[in-house]
Amino acid sequence: MAFLEVNGKKAYYEVHGDHESTLVILNGIMMSCSSWQPFVSLLCQHFKVVLLDFYDQGKSEYLVENYTQELQIELVKETIMALDLQQVTLMGISYGGEVAMKFAVKYQNLIEKLILANTTAYTNQQLRAIGDAWVYAAKTHDGKQFFKNTIPPIYSMDFYEKNIDWLNAREEMFARLFDARWYDGFIRLVISAEAHDARGDVNQIKVPTLLIGADEDIITPLSCQIELNEAIENSRFVVIKNCGHASMYEKPIEFFSAVIGFAAIGEQSFKI
Amino acid sequence: MAFLEVNGKKAYYEVHGDHESTLVILNGIMMSCSSWQPFVSLLCQHFKVVLLDFYDQGKSEYLVENYTQELQIELVKETIMALDLQQVTLMGISYGGEVAMKFAVKYQNLIEKLILANTTAYTNQQLRAIGDAWVYAAKTHDGKQFFKNTIPPIYSMDFYEKNIDWLNAREEMFARLFDARWYDGFIRLVISAEAHDARGDVNQIKVPTLLIGADEDIITPLSCQIELNEAIENSRFVVIKNCGHASMYEKPIEFFSAVIGFAAIGEQSFKI
Amino acid sequence: MAFLEVNGKKAYYEVHGDHESTLVILNGIMMSCSSWQPFVSLLCQHFKVVLLDFYDQGKSEYLVENYTQELQIELVKETIMALDLQQVTLMGISYGGEVAMKFAVKYQNLIEKLILANTTAYTNQQLRAIGDAWVYAAKTHDGKQFFKNTIPPIYSMDFYEKNIDWLNAREEMFARLFDARWYDGFIRLVISAEAHDARGDVNQIKVPTLLIGADEDIITPLSCQIELNEAIENSRFVVIKNCGHASMYEKPIEFFSAVIGFAAIGEQSFKI
Amino acid sequence: MAFLEVNGKKAYYEVHGDHESTLVILNGIMMSCSSWQPFVSLLCQHFKVVLLDFYDQGKSEYLVENYTQELQIELVKETIMALDLQQVTLMGISYGGEVAMKFAVKYQNLIEKLILANTTAYTNQQLRAIGDAWVYAAKTHDGKQFFKNTIPPIYSMDFYEKNIDWLNAREEMFARLFDARWYDGFIRLVISAEAHDARGDVNQIKVPTLLIGADEDIITPLSCQIELNEAIENSRFVVIKNCGHASMYEKPIEFFSAVIGFAAIGEQSFKI
User: Fold this and answer.
1) Domain CATH code at residue B85
2) Closest to A129 (Cβ–Cβ): which among B136, B137, B160?
3) Across all residues in chain C, what is the average pLDDT?
4) What is the average pLDDT across B200-229?
């Protein structure tokens, strides 16, 4: 629970546990360090867990000017350097996965393994249109407008069917929690992802890489991870069934089984 | 190009061609008779084509009170009776499919074949949440808000990638075309579908039935048509690849091949 | 019901009906003209139907030396020329699809439309291993060995579950019907497909093309038709659900709906 | 490396490592303890590993009379009792999964977690026909006939494409290794699975359960594990992409990541 200052901008991070191997987690766009609290005690049995709020997210500094994801990549690097982290598994989901894959291209020597969940090498035109819609809704500063726009495509049909009360309660909570500063930060985050296109670069990733996809992910469908799987040599790929974009919330046991198991194995060759 | 009056409410319909067998087409929620114009000359080679605007749609009457889809079912029945249609293949897409399947349960003797495209037996919680979002956006009467909310999930990723200019042009057009009356009609249409649940009834459908699904349909995913396929005895089922919810726009040749072919064959048994 | 002689080798063909437009059908490897008899009367409502036994198949001549599929391509060409066929839709399934796609590359001007069902651009190593297994079983001249090897992967799980008696009866029939001449012809047919690799050529196909796949096809899985779909510009692609390799037997209504519908439409552009 | 005697029949087992938690592994039908040797040193970092040859398999006793899988279930029970195993995760693949699920129904109190890979609740008619074909081929005692029949459907298309030399070498090895005793044991194993039908019982399984499927599994397709997932309350389900039936050989890192991760987590509830 501390702050790091990079070029005069403060960023919030948390370090949990003192395990030898480290898991650095990069958030999706609507998440923050607090999104991972339900899983911290489990993860601490296997990792030193480092959580980090991107700029314009959670308790990190809210900026004024627009920027690209490059700024967040540098923040991740400064965090790893400042904490002198070793044996790092870097895991990113969605927006965090976009940052993680470009981090891996640029600073491969700082990490040992890479886990990319529900993410894409490229902000395609449909994803950009979805982002535009989210920005347009965020600009209204109307929590209901924002929730109704952003949440239905995040979860699977089955999750909606079974958790409608929890989802309705969250709609109330969104309307209460989010303020102008939050919406403006969210808008800058969306804009920073608009130009994301690592399709020509991800083939440089040589660290052991696990891809996690979900068969009902609408935001970053399986085809996005299939493309990553073809581009990243020796990348591993598992799919969670009956699951939408927020896979660690919908299917935490499947999600963290893959994370903990892959971090334990990494890359090995077996003589069969 | 004429009007029918049922219980004092005027409904618009079009009859094209004079083929012996008839195709009655029921629109999706944001469509109208004019949506089918590009395909009328093709279809007239195979059918007398009957187009119909539901209440609160296109040139039909805009209502004031809310209603259920039962009202639209009766409109379809009155149209078929008034025009004394014979050898009717009834085809509905999305909202039109919901009306068509319940029409088939109720007035099976009036039709010979049934085609249900990109539709569902049940407005599940996720689909209801999407509907709520559309209603909320429509209430702003802001064409951009409305377009950005409703359109991205309607098409496939690939279609977005290749047709972004056409889609952007449509966004401009929506903002120009839609007025308060249209938005209020749209809202009532969404509300009329909220209680849709024909899961317990569709097993009564005995006319030859074709289901058309699209593998990237987000609004009514393949699982919806799989459920219909299991419920409707002897229903036939084809899937269009790389295609979203507006399948007749994205893949007209695949879509109308299935329609024309199935209408030609219907149900036959072959001694293999 | 007649014979054609090409370079001294006799080939059997059938012409049914006198429709203006023609459908030439090329058999799968274990089929013959008689396999299509259940569907001839339906197809004659829409086409002049031309059936053809490849060399080493049905009533055509059984050869002695091995050959490549080039020989069969030339046979198709001679048939179309000899019968002076016009407005030809060429349809091939499995082995017949391999011949059809290479025919389309070589003699594109002789056909108007192309339909490729349950087929592949390339005899991959697994398909070659399956072929080797079939050859090995055929060499025993033991009908039971042959049937048990070849038939289970041809149909879907659901078809097996529902038609086990019909399948068991067919096993008896195979053992009775097939003789040494038949098995030796079958072996040569398999060998003629071993070197099939049109991956570099199918992009030359410019006639309107429909691809039909089946989601439980084990012999030529959907990935084979996805590859064809990407290679053949503007090719159309439909998938039949709950269906194995012998799609016209398992799901004749879906199969022939696609064939009849596509032949009626071909390639058109619609102004949407 | 020791033997256990149950009712006068000797069974071979191996215990590796002395970890607190135990992984008992049940083989697929053509496997034996030696199939797992490449993975033992990895698994020993996380488990005491117990391998076991079923009767008619590997170094266990070869029987004379036919039997049902009940015999193997009792063997598993006797092994767990004799070794006084605690904190047992029971994992079975294919045939081993069939035994494991019925073991879990009968002796649930003896295990803590269950992992079922590439398996089915029911020997459906197609799987039975495949089994019949394998028996028929095995009866020839011809290693080539046997290999060509059994191996192609075991692996994915991609694995075949990339490992054809290894596969060809294995064909030679099979022909050398297998003798009459082995073939006769294999035949009895297939027959013991013919009547397998746990569809009405698996809903009694209450221990935390992980299902592993492979998207190109032909022998026990994903639909089999979907059925298990629906029947076993709270079962978890991951799918390995581009992978056939022998998933632990084709994709060991994905496979054992899931196994190690799930064994570490089991069932937990997270307050999201």
Assistant:
1) 3.40.50.1820
2) B160
3) 96
4) 98
Q: Would the CB atoms of C216 and D216 count as touching at under 8 Å? A: no
What pLDDT score does A77 carry?
A: 98
Buried/exposed A206-238: b ≥16 CB within 10 Å, e otherwise: ebbbbbbbbbbbbbbbbbbbbebbebbeebbbb
- Higher confidence at residue A45 or residue B234? A45
Residues of B within an 8 Å Cβ radius of A: 124-127, 129-130, 132-133, 136-137, 140, 144-145, 148-149, 151-153, 155-157, 160-161, 164, 167, 216, 218, 221, 223
Whether chain A lies against chain B with 3 or more Cβ pairs closer than 8 A is yes
| Alpha-carbon span C53 to C33, nearest angstrom | 6
The total of structural domains in chain D comes to 1
pTM for the full predicted model: 0.97
Mean pLDDT across the stretch D3-18? Answer: 95
Contacts of B210 in chain C (CB under 8 A): 257
pLDDT of residue C183: 97
Query: Which residues of D have a CB under 8 Å from any CB of C?
Result: 124-127, 129-130, 132-133, 136-137, 140, 144-145, 148-149, 151-153, 155-157, 160-161, 164, 167, 216, 218, 221, 223
Tokens found for residue C107: 């003699």
Query: Residue C164: inside a domain, yes or no?
Result: no
Domain assignment present for residue D61? The answer is: yes
Structure tokens given for C265: 């439409």
Express as a percent the part of chain C with pLDDT over 90. 94
Q: C236, B229: Cβ pair inside 8 Å?
A: no
Q: With pLDDT > 70 as the criterion, what percentage of chain A qualifies?
A: 100
With beta carbons less than 8 A apart as the criterion, state whether A76 and A50 touch: no
Contact D256 A265 (CB under 8 A): yes
Residue A198 DSSP one-character state: -
* Residue D52 covered by a domain: yes
Residue D219 domain boundaries: 2-123+196-265
C-alpha–C-alpha distance, residues B71 and D19, integer Å: 69
Q: How confident is the model at residue D60 (pLDDT cuts 50, 70, 90)?
A: very high
**D187-236 residue pLDDT tens:** 999 999 999 999 999 999 999 999 999 999 999 999 999 999 999 998 99
Beta bridge partners of B50: B15, B24
pLDDT of residue B13: 98
* Both tokens assigned to C90: 């060429």
Residue in chain A closest to B222 (alpha carbons) equals: A216
Residue A234: pLDDT over 90: no
